[in-house]
C-alpha cells in the first residue's frame, strides 16, 4: 500500500513539473515580427529624434533638439545639454539587440513588472515616434524584459542602460569651450593691484608680459591659469535674483581670455568673503556693592578680550560673457547664476607676484 502511494505521488509531481515547464518556457519568436535579432533602437529612428524623455519611479527628464541642431535640457531651464551623454544613451540602445520574443500573455506580462521605467523619442512636430518600457531584470542580472509602446508583447534584451532622471546631470557643465591652444592672451585681475596681461604669438611660443625689475614671467604659472580658465565647469545653479548672488557681487575678480581668432571671453568670479563679528555678550546681572576697606578704590578691573563669531565665506559665483553674440553661454547667464567649486577659485594666483620668478642667475 505504501509503495503504491509513493508511485502515485511521484507521478503527480512529474506531471506538475512538465506543466510548469510548458507554462513558463519562452515562446518562439513569431516569424512575422522582424524585430527579433535587430537593435532595440535603429539608427534611422534615432536620427529623426528631436525630443527624448527618460522616465523612472515617477520622475522624468526632457531633452529637446532645436532648429540649430543643439540639444537642451527642457526640464532644467533650457540649458545646453551634454551631447556626449545623449550620444552614449543612443549608442547603448542601438547596440542592444532584441534577443528573443518572450510572451504576449497578459498574465505573464503582469509578472514582468512593467511600470513607468521608459524612454520615448519624439520628432520635431512633437509626435512620439518610438518608445520602450523596461520590466524587471533577468535573474542572472544580464538584461531586461522590454516592450514597445503599449503593445501586449514583451521581448528580452541583453541591455544595460541607466535611466538618469536628474535634469541637472544632463546639462553641459562647461562654461568655456575654448581650448588652451586657442588662447592668444590672458588678462589676470587682482584685488588692489593692476592686472597682469600675458600674451603669445603662437600656441607654441613663450608667454610674454611686463615683469618687475629683476624677475621674469613664470611660464608654468601662466599656463596653469589658462588651463584652469578653459576647463571651468559649474557645480550648481541658483536663480539670478538669489540674495547670495547680490551679496557676492561686491567682491569680484576679473579675467579675460582672447583667442587667436580675435574673440574674447570675460570671466568674473564673485564671492562674499569670510566675516568676523564681535560676539554680543549678555548683559551682566548687577550685584550689590560691598564695602571693603582693603580694596583700592582707584583699582579698575581689566576689560575682557572681545570674542568673535566667524561667518564662513559664501559660494563662488561665476559670470562668463563671450564677444560672440551667438555663444550659448551668453543666453545661459540670463537664465541662472552659476556656482563653481571653491578650489577652482582659491587655486588661482592671489597676487601679481605669484606669476613671476627671479631667474637663478640673478639670485
Q: What keywords describe this structure?
A:
alpha+beta; 2 domains; extended; 8 helices; 363 residues
What value does the Rg take, in angstroms? Answer: 34 Å
> What is the percentage of strand-forming residues?
25-35%
How would you sum up the global shape? extended
How are the strands ordered across the major sheet? Answer: 4-3-2-1-6-7-8-9-5
Mean pLDDT: 86
Number of strands: 20
Brief rundown of the structure:
This protein is of the alpha+beta class. The protein is 21% helix and 29% strand.
Descriptive overview:
By secondary structure, this protein is α+β, with helices and mostly antiparallel strands. It has helices spanning 2-24, 43-48, 83-95, 106-110, 219-229, 243-249, 328-335, 342-346, and strands spanning 51-56, 59-65, 71-73, 79-80, 98-103, 118-122, 128-137, 144-148, 154-157, 183-190, 193-199, 216-217, 236-238, 252-259, 264-271, 275-278, 308-311, 316-322, 337-340, 356-357. It is extended and about 90 Å long. Strands 4-3-2-1-6-7-8-9-5 form a nine-stranded antiparallel sheet. The chain has two domains: 33-170, no CATH class; 180-278 and 308-356, no CATH class.
